[in-house]
Write a structure and sequence with these properties.
By secondary structure, this protein is α/β, with parallel strands linked by helices. The protein has 8 helices and 5 strands. The longest helix is centred in the middle third of the chain and has 16 residues.
Length: 205
């Protein structure tokens, strides 16, 4: 299986990780692409779905830089704003306080690259959910469809995500603002974990 790196990836990303039987390759060679899950995620707030972004250092050749080498820009207080946004959205969810401090530690470790930040977050959620895929960095260029189960383009905030439906896992779970919005799909895995806790694994399988 081949996936792109992602920041607080969507639930469908972890459904794929939970189904993976062999090594999961994370594409480290492709160029940075803006407006993708590489540096953004989607949460559910009292006002509706909201995207959170990681600012990156914009050099002269950013969009020709391998995603594994893109650096996070810590010159603005985005970490503080991100923590506040997540806390405001999920402080009333059943399991937020249980996972909060460990998650803050991951964010406050301030990895230099977007690749390392995303990898730490992916590993954090894998551990809390209870899955242990073998994650490996793929550093050679592979064209789209060049490997079996290539999901790099299947998961994108601007395109329909049919992964859960294709896996037979498309169903609602409990959400904080369900009375206001009904069930909202396509959110970050943090939405599932904070609302379902240990039952997240059952949802993904």
């Amino acid at each position: 299986m081949l996936l792109a790196t992602a920041y607080f990836p969507p639930v469908s990303y972890f459904a794929l990780l939970a189904q993976a039987g062999d090594t999961v390759w994370l594409d480290a060679s492709s160029h940075y692409v803006k407006q993708s899950w590489r540096n953004r995620c989607r949460i559910l707030t009292a006002g509706g779905p909201e995207d959170l972004n990681v600012p990156v250092v914009h050099g002269d050749d950013l969009f020709h830089t391998p995603v594994s080498e893109v650096r996070v820009d810590y010159s603005t207080p985005w970490l503080l704003k991100t923590r506040r946004a997540i806390a405001t959205a999920y402080e009333s969810s059943p399991f937020f306080l249980y996972y909060r401090d460990a998650l803050w530690e991951v964010l406050e470790s301030r990895p230099d690259t977007l690749w390392e930040l995303n990898l730490r977050l992916i590993r954090f959620f894998c551990a809390k959910i209870g899955i242990a895929p073998k994650l490996e960095a793929l550093r050679e260029f592979v064209p789209e469809g060049g490997m079996p189960d290539d999901y790099r383009e299947a998961l994108h905030p601007k395109r329909p995500d049919t992964v859960l439906r294709d896996l037979g896992l498309e169903r609602p779970y409990w959400q904080v603002f369900r009375d206001r919005f009904g069930f909202v799909p396509g959110l970050s895995v943090m939405d599932l974990l904070f609302n379902e806790g240990p039952e997240s694994l059952c949802f993904l399988k």
